[in-house]
């Protein structure tokens, strides 16, 4: 009987031991999921947008640039509308050409336009970076300080801005590209034509703010006029705004009242100046984009920015692991700037020949565009 009792006790102890081993999986799932679910929602939203976007941008772009067959994604923030016939449209048109060339299965882009307010643009730049875009372009010289603050938070995202040559490498930032337009070159060509077409010998310029590609264009334009007709008078009016159409209109009227029969200007506010020139029958020379559609009868020619190759060079570098630290320039020689004659304006043959010769001379280096000392 004692042996039997011991045998039963032994059997029961084995059963209890087996049951205790089967209970282990119940404990693990109960603890692990609870901890994961509690930590992720609590931590991520608390640290956003500094920590959470950094992680997203760190991982997503790397996969997008390294894995073949992935869509290369670009985001761009612009200070004016995409149809401004000026600075913003030049970038928008280039991105569209690349998309049409490569196909939507290999290249796509998103944009936020009319963000002249820097704080609004900064929020958009950070948002795009957090979404894992391969390249985020801040298309405006006013965005530089914002980019210098944002880029370090997204070390695996490439950024670019212009027009400038500053990549912030001296500040230890390694993921910012820079690009500029050598707009004095097309400005010089336009100045040559303006001097030949002006009958009064008085030419007016409506500038936005005396900086960047706007200043280069105006300086080049003045140099082209002077080289062609040293006795010509070039009056420059800096209105202090890139976007104030009314001020540009007033400035154009002031120039015409002073005897100007040819006008030019830079930035998106020039639509106002072109309107006045059209009403008064005064010739106009454009820059940044083709402005012929605004007034086909008086727009003579336009210097057009073509950013395609700059963007493609950045894409190539990014795909190979270089996310910044280089500056690019567009000019007449590399095709990043193109002088387009308005087909609806009957440009005299000798004037066109002079312009073509000037383009050739600047491209091959035989003509140097003089600029004032900085």
Number of helices: 12
Count of DSSP strands: 12
Placed side by side, the strands forming the largest sheet appear as 2-1-3-4-5-11
* Radius of gyration over all CA atoms, rounded: 30 Å
The structural class is alpha/beta
Order of helices and strands: HHHEHEHEHEEHEHEHEHEEHEEH
What is the CATH third-level topology name of the largest domain? Rossmann fold
**β-strand amount:** 15-25%
* Name of the top-level CATH class of the largest domain: Alpha Beta
| Secondary structure: helix percent | 40-55%
Shape: globular
How many separate domains? 3
Question: Describe it for me?
Answer:
The protein is an alpha/beta fold. It folds into three domains: 46 residues; 149 residues, 3-Layer(aba) Sandwich (Rossmann fold), CATH 3.40.50; 150 residues, Rossmann fold (3-Layer(aba) Sandwich), CATH 3.40.50.2300. It has twelve helices and twelve strands. The strands form two sheets. The protein has a six-stranded parallel beta sheet, sandwiched between helices. Strands 7-6-8-9-10-12 form a six-stranded mixed beta sheet, sandwiched between helices. Helix 6 links the parallel strand 3 and strand 4. Helix 3 crosses helix 5, helix 7 runs parallel beside helix 8 and helix 9 runs parallel beside helix 10. The longest helix has 24 residues. The radius of gyration is 30 Å and the shape is globular.
List the helices and strands and how they pair.
Blueprint: H1 2-22, H2 24-47, H3 51-66, E1 72-77, H4 87-102, E2 107-112, H5 118-130, E3 135-138, H6 144-150, E4 158-162, E5 176-181, H7 183-197, E6 202-207, H8 212-228, E7 233-238, H9 245-257, E8 262-265, H10 270-280, E9 283-288, E10 299-305, H11 308-319, E11 327-330, E12 337-341, H12 349-364
Parallel strand pairs: 1-2, 1-3, 3-4, 4-5, 5-11, 6-7, 6-8, 8-9, 9-10
Antiparallel strand pairs: 10-12
Helix pairs in contact: 3-5, 7-8, 7-12, 9-10
């Amino acid at each position: 009987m004692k042996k039997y009792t011991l045998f039963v006790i032994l059997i029961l102890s084995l059963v209890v031991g087996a049951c205790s081993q089967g209970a282990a999986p119940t404990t693990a799932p109960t603890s692990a999921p609870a901890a994961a679910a509690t930590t992720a929602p609590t931590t991520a939203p608390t640290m956003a947008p500094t920590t959470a976007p950094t992680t997203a941008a760190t991982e997503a772009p790397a996969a997008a640039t390294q894995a073949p067959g992935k869509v290369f994604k670009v985001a761009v923030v612009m200070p004016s509308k995409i149809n401004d016939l000026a600075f913003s449209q030049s970038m928008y048109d280039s991105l569209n050409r690349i998309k049409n060339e490569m196909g939507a299965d290999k290249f796509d882009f998103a944009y936020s336009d009319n963000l002249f307010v820097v704080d609004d643009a900064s929020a958009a730049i950070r948002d795009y970076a957090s979404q894992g875009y391969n390249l985020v372009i801040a298309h405006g010289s006013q965005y530089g300080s914002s980019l210098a603050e944002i880029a370090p938070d997204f070390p695996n995202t490439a950024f670019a801005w212009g027009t400038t040559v500053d990549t912030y490498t001296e500040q230890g930032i390694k993921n910012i590209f820079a690009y500029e337009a050598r707009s004095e070159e097309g400005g010089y060509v336009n100045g040559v034509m303006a001097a030949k077409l002006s009958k009064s010998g008085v030419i007016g310029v409506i500038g936005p703010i005396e900086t960047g590609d706007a200043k280069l264009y105006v300086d080049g334009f003045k140099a082209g006029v002077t080289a062609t007709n040293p006795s010509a008078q070039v009056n420059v009016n800096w209105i202090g705004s890139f976007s104030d159409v009314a001020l540009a209109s007033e400035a154009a009227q002031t120039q015409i009242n002073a005897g100007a029969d040819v006008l030019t200007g830079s930035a998106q506010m020039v639509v106002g100046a072109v309107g006045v020139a059209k009403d008064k029958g005064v010739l106009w020379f454009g820059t940044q984009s083709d402005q012929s559609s605004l007034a086909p009868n008086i727009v003579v020619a336009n210097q057009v920015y073509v950013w395609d190759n700059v963007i493609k060079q950045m894409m190539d570098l990014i795909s190979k692991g270089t996310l910044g630290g280089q500056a690019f320039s567009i000019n007449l020689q590399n095709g990043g700037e193109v002088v387009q004659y308005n087909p609806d304006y009957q440009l005299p043959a000798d004037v066109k020949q002079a312009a073509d010769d000037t383009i050739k001379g600047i491209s091959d280096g035989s003509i140097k565009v003089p600029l004032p000392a900085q």
